[in-house]
Amino acid sequence: MDDSKIIELFFERSEQAIVELSNKYGSICDKIAYNILNNLQDCEECVNDAYLAVWNTIPPQKPDPLLSYVCRIVRNLSLKKYHENTAKKRNSIYDVALDELADCIPASASVEDELAAKEAAGMINSFLATLDRQSRILFVRRYWHADSIEELAAMFHKSRHYVSVRLSRIRKALKQYLEKEGISV
Known about the structure:
Arc Repressor Mutant, subunit A
């Protein structure tokens, strides 16, 4: 079913909207949540909570594209659940991806830091626009979708080593780009 028809169903307050949303994007949502949480029950909970959030925000929202809207909600809920689950312990699945970026992106602690983080996000988007398509996809799949190195290697038909080296070079270039733009790393 077309996204606009699914959104129409939400505006009509038809429960069929959730069914159609799940049929069309459920597997993508599950993958995002599972990559972050590495737990099927938590994954299912976050995806269902995301469907409820979509139900509660459409209307008045009319997201375009719908997929990005739903994925962002799933990711944010999954990260929230992840932080709840790992408040006192580390989870090697997602922490590895975050640790890789730690040298490139400064941590935020104050309001000023939050504003700087928003500025940095804009610069990261500008940096991503300078990359070739494959590098951009690798970066987003690794650090937004939290895909593993093995998954990326299979997706791109490359070796694990190739993917690791490529990501390392992208992070190095990102760090240089941010420093050139005046963001201390």
